[in-house]
């Protein structure tokens, strides 16, 4: 039975049985789909039969052993042996502030306020003073030196010297003499056996 409609369906009832008869176009599509599937399977089998190229490692790629060792050595970082780790070369600081400057390493003195001496146990570096001029606007002292007001604190003298060596600065150490504090008591001013009491009569 031939029909031009794709979705046409004839239902026949025979002896209590229902028979579904599909259209010829649907059957043709099923047959064509089966042929496409078989064609794809043939392509897969053909692809499996293709021999892949042999994978080669670096050792097998470089025929000569010396060439392979040279290639391996070129992969690593370059290490330069130096007696001093001079950071000032790559710091970006102009040469005029590295080669022509002198750093003073000293221990700052206690200020005149009533705070204790626990916060002065450190070493400090400062640079020499460059040329200054009077500002014509306000009369203030001006300078074009970017390092004149820089102060860096260190816990010890050795750390300060090591920092100056790394930066490539010439430095001088100002000696410091620790003084033993004298015991003082306010009540001594009014002691009976001290000649500190002044009579008003």
Strand content: 15-25%
Gyration radius, to the nearest Å? 47 Å
What is the C-level CATH assignment of the domain at 87-110 and 121-173?
Alpha Beta
Strand order in the sheet with the most strands:
7-4-3-8
Class based on secondary structure composition and strand pairing = alpha+beta
CATH architecture of the domain at 87-110 and 121-173: 2-Layer Sandwich
Give me the count of strands.
8
Shape summary: elongated
- CATH fold description of the domain at 87-110 and 121-173: Double Stranded RNA Binding Domain
Low-confidence regions = 1-28
Order of helices and strands: EEHHHEEEEEHE
Provide mean pLDDT, rounded: 73
Number of helical stretches of at least 4 residues: 4
The share of residues in helices is 25-40%
Distance between the termini: 150 Å
Largest sheet at a glance?
4 strands, mixed
Task: Give an account of the 3D structure.
The protein is of the alpha+beta class and 201 residues long. Among the domains are: 10-49, no CATH class; 87-110 and 121-173, Double Stranded RNA Binding Domain (2-Layer Sandwich), CATH 3.30.160. The protein contains 4 helices and 8 strands. The protein has helices spanning 24-49, 58-61, 65-75, 157-167; strands at residues 10-14, 17-21, 102-106, 123-127, 132-134, 141-143, 152-154, 170-173. The strands form 3 sheets. It has a 4-stranded mixed beta sheet with strand order 7-4-3-8, with helices on one face. A two-stranded antiparallel ribbon has the order 1-2. A two-stranded antiparallel sheet has the order 5-6. Strand 5 (132-134) and strand 6 form a beta hairpin. The longest helix has 26 residues, at 24-49. The protein is elongated.
């Amino acid at each position: 039975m031939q029909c031009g409609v794709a979705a046409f369906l004839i239902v026949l009832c025979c002896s209590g049985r229902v028979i579904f008869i599909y259209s010829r176009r649907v059957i043709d599509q099923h047959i064509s789909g089966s042929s496409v599937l078989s064609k794809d399977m043939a392509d897969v089998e053909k692809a499996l039969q293709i021999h892949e190229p042999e994978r080669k490692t670096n050792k097998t790629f470089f025929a000569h052993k010396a060439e392979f060792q040279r290639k391996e050595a070129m992969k690593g970082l370059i290490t330069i042996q130096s007696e001093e780790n001079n950071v000032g070369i790559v710091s970006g600081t102009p040469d005029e502030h590295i080669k022509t400057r002198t750093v003073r390493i000293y221990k700052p003195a206690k200020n005149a306020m009533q705070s204790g001496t626990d916060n002065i146990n450190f070493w400090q570096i400062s640079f020499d003073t460059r040329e200054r001029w009077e500002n014509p606007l306000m009369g203030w002292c001006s300078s074009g030196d970017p390092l004149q007001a820089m102060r860096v604190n260190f816990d010890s003298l050795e750390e300060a010297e090591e920092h100056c060596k790394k930066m490539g600065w010439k430095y001088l150490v100002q000696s410091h003499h620790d003084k033993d504090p004298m015991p003082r008591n306010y009540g001594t001013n009014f002691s009976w056996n001290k000649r500190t009491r002044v009579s008003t009569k």
